[in-house]
């Protein structure tokens, strides 16, 4: 039996490291930003057990297909934490999640988020969610719910991770994808805003090995290294949907979101078996951050192109007679775009796995392939 004079003090949830009052304060700080994403389709407001979305609008579809995706931001959150800048990371989350459903032509409806942290700092959590809400507005989606979980002992007090999921809808006969792609189609590149949110384990390792600090000003970048590494992911959703509507399904056949695995691996996923996309590496000038990572870490080019987007964040597969219209409309929207390559029939004599620059069978998809040729151009 424990002696009363030596008995430990009673334990509370707060003493164990979980501050529910801090969580409530975070909700108060973020709820106006969340409400700003709500249209009349969102019911119940902020704070319910479940987010409610009125699906009546789906009755206008002849055969509505629901599309869903989930993802996180990855180790880019380590840059946000090191710089104590948290209001932009939400754009990375929305870009990774919502732009994955847009590739099939789906209009995003709503999104939810999840933040795990070692200690709830209300202002920090609110900054993260405000960023998610702002990006949802850009994408045209409602942020209908979320969760912040405090995990003391599992995560350090100032560590957090963020993830999310989104749902959208597309008319069945307007679905974009490999089934529409034909030999002769043209690849149109849509520029990335920078590194986006993939490959940061490699990038951080390069920076660490070089001994560079995030506060270091880099002339080639025109700003500090930290500012460059924290540049938010471009959210393509609204622009991609606008391009698809303008061109129609007869003109715009498929999208590829260039995320983990790089350009070739992700384009190969949206090509049917028997087709190859020819991409000349010299068709665009690499943004300086990619050249910097390569040179600073002496990263092999094959490794770099299999990890980072190299300046291309989204690729549209377009019918030949629709290319000029797509490029013109992208320019009207202020979205840098250019012709990236063409789709052709595979040649069984030369298009073989293991050939230099030949990429196929990625992400578990037994589809088409990409043939990269030439060398990259650097500024």
Automatic annotation (TrEMBL):
Q: What is its EC number?
A: 6.3.3.1
Q: Which UniProt keywords apply?
A: ATP-binding, Cytoplasm, Ligase, Nucleotide-binding, Purine biosynthesis
Spell out the SUPFAM superfamilies in the cross-references: PurM C-terminal domain-like, PurM N-terminal domain-like
Q: Name one matching Pfam family.
A: AIRS_C
**Predominant subcellular localization, coarse grouping:** cytoplasm
Q: Which residues form the PurM-like N-terminal domain?
A: 62-170
- Which GO BP terms sit in this record? 'de novo' IMP biosynthetic process; adenine biosynthetic process
Tell me the pathway: Purine metabolism; IMP biosynthesis via de novo pathway; 5-amino-1-(5-phospho-D-ribosyl)imidazole from N(2)-formyl-N(1)-(5-phospho-D-ribosyl)glycinamide: step 2/2
Q: A Gene Ontology CC term for this entry?
A: cytosol
The catalysed reaction is: 2-formamido-N(1)-(5-O-phospho-beta-D-ribosyl)acetamidine + ATP = 5-amino-1-(5-phospho-beta-D-ribosyl)imidazole + ADP + phosphate + H(+)
Alphabetized InterPro entries for the sequence: PurM-like_C_dom (IPR010918), PurM-like_C_sf (IPR036676), PurM-like_N (IPR016188), PurM-like_N_sf (IPR036921), PurM_cligase (IPR004733)
- Signal peptide bounds: none
Residues of the PurM-like C-terminal domain: 182-346
- Give the UniProt subcellular location, in the record's own words: Cytoplasm
Q: Which GO terms describe its molecular function?
A: ATP binding; phosphoribosylamine-glycine ligase activity; phosphoribosylformylglycinamidine cyclo-ligase activity
| HAMAP family with a match to the protein in the record | AIRS
Similarity comment text for this entry: Belongs to the AIR synthase family.
Q: What is this protein called?
A: Phosphoribosylformylglycinamidine cyclo-ligase
**Native organism:** Cellulomonas composti
- Gene encoding this polypeptide? purM
């Amino acid at each position: 039996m424990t002696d009363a004079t030596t008995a430990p003090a009673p334990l509370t949830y707060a003493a164990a490291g979980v501050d529910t009052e801090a969580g409530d304060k975070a909700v108060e700080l973020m709820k106006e930003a969340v409400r700003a994403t709500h249209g009349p389709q969102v019911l119940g407001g902020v704070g319910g057990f479940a987010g409610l979305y009125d699906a009546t609008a789906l009755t206008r579809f002849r055969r509505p297909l629901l599309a869903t995706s989930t993802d996180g931001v990855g180790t880019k959150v380590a840059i946000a934490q090191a710089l104590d800048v948290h209001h932009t990371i939400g754009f990375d989350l929305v870009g990774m999640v919502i732009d994955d459903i847009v590739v099939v032509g789906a209009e995003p409806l709503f999104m939810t988020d999840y933040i795990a942290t070692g200690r709830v700092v209300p202002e920090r959590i609110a900054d993260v969610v405000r960023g998610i809400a702002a990006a949802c507005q850009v994408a045209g989606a409602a942020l209908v719910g979320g969760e912040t979980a405090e995990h003391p002992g599992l995560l350090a007090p100032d560590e957090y991770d963020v993830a999310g999921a989104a749902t959208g809808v597309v008319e069945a006969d307007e679905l974009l994808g490999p089934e529409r792609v034909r030999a002769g189609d043209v690849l149109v590149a849509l520029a990335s805003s920078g590194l986006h949110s993939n490959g940061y384990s490699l990038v951080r390792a390069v920076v660490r090995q070089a001994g560079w600090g995030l506060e270091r000003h880099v002339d080639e970048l025109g700003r500090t290294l930290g500012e460059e590494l924290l540049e938010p992911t471009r959210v393509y959703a609204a622009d991609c949907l606008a391009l698809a509507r303008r061109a129609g399904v007869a003109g715009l056949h498929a999208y590829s979101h260039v995320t983990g695995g790089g350009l070739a691996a992700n384009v190969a996923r949206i090509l049917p078996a028997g087709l190859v996309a020819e991409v000349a590496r010299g068709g665009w000038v690499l943004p300086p951050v990619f050249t910097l990572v390569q040179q600073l870490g002496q990263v092999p080019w094959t490794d770099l192109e299999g990890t980072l987007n190299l300046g291309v964040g989204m690729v549209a597969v377009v019918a030949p007679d629709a290319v000029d219209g797509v490029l013109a409309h992208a320019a009207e929207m202020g979205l840098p775009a250019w012709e990236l390559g063409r789709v052709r029939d595979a040649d069984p004599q030369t298009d073989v796995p293991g050939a230099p620059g030949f990429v196929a069978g990625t992400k578990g998809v037994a589809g088409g392939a990409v043939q990269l040729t030439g060398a990259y151009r650097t500024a």
